């Protein structure tokens, strides 16, 4: 139940080609001359190496897709965005998830999905979710790489400021050496040891003599070429991990054997993010930067082809215009947003007028339900579940969601991320002149509903550590 099978690619090569070209033009996969499309057409007629891939969303629903063997993770995400009518903001990603091992990792955009699936165990599966932090280190590198963990290249002699040197490495095929203490799990045991570790282009090493870098004191922990790095999501329970910030390096040949996994723990989230980001940079180099730049180039080259759609699966609503003789669907997202704001303001005016006339009060169910259609509202989820969602979708500044308060049935909670730390702010109702308002600063700033509150803090920081930027969302496939 809840599964949807995409049959189009399997019907005929013609239908698949039409579908794929539509996806390219509307989502902007890449820019090719007309001759290339004709060449792709001829190739498609003879190409029959399709593979079955099943992709799940956060709510457990899934899509079965038949894809060519050379389809990349980015291509599949674009296809899912196109098929599910999601808003494409370049933050969607494909996640390799191993429930029994408790492992997650975001596929790089250039990875071939079929190849990754061939190396997965039978219990492994793909998830479709947002990850706002996937390329955040290119925009804010100093937030990801603490100076004490970065060993500067000897040839610079300290003449280049750390920020410039780090930016230089991030925008090229290399990365500075990363060093620091990590907890390492003994293979086949439950015990952990704290050792000094070095991450270089040649691999991950630990020192058998304190913090010594001498080659005779270094032992290889893992090779980068034939391995991938994963976040461990069940570390405390499954591995008796000393901290909550566990990750592991998994050789590609390993499917479900715990003994072959190199389990590690960092002291805090920033350290874990540093190690994992550096691993990706050292493994893939300039490919990551090219992946990061492609969406920006795509917007420039294919702006006249793009036809962004309002998300049906995310919003559960379609913007309509009933000003004419017949209604029409508003496809333009700018026009749709303007219509939504206009409707919201009209709703507030009607609500206020009803309150003055003695109609049902502001806490009437009709006035409480308006925020429940918003992407950022997640109802009665727990504090732990909100933490999990924020972590999964990338701990970038301004990532947020709203939920019902567990301690106060009349209140709500704003959960947001700042400097890779998750913070909670209670939104309390307050009464003034017979009207109920909502405030998260003890009544200093009051709002008639939660939509108005969110809109305000998207434009103004107020008492928050930063503005609200990215809504934490879940889409049903």
UniProtKB/TrEMBL annotation:
GO terms for cellular component: cytoplasm
Classification via CDD domains: PH_APBB1IP, SH2_Grb10
Molecular function GO labels: insulin receptor binding
Keyword Nuclease attributed: no
Compartments, as annotated in UniProt: Cytoplasm
InterPro entries listed in its UniProt record: BPS-dom, GRB/APBB1IP, Grb10_SH2, PH-like_dom_sf, PH_APBB1IP, PH_domain, RA_dom, SH2
GO biological process: insulin receptor signaling pathway; negative regulation of insulin receptor signaling pathway; negative regulation of Wnt signaling pathway
Boundaries of every Ras-associating domain copy: 49-133
Sequence ranges assigned to domain PH in this UniProt record: 175-284
Superkingdom classification of source: Eukaryota
SH2 domain residues: 376-472
UniProtKB keywords: Cytoplasm, Phosphoprotein, SH2 domain
Pfam families tied to this protein: BPS (PF08947), PH (PF00169), RA_2 (PF21989), SH2 (PF00017)
PANTHER family in the record: GROWTH FACTOR RECEPTOR-BOUND PROTEIN, GROWTH FACTOR RECEPTOR-BOUND PROTEIN 10
Listed name of the protein: Growth factor receptor bound protein 10
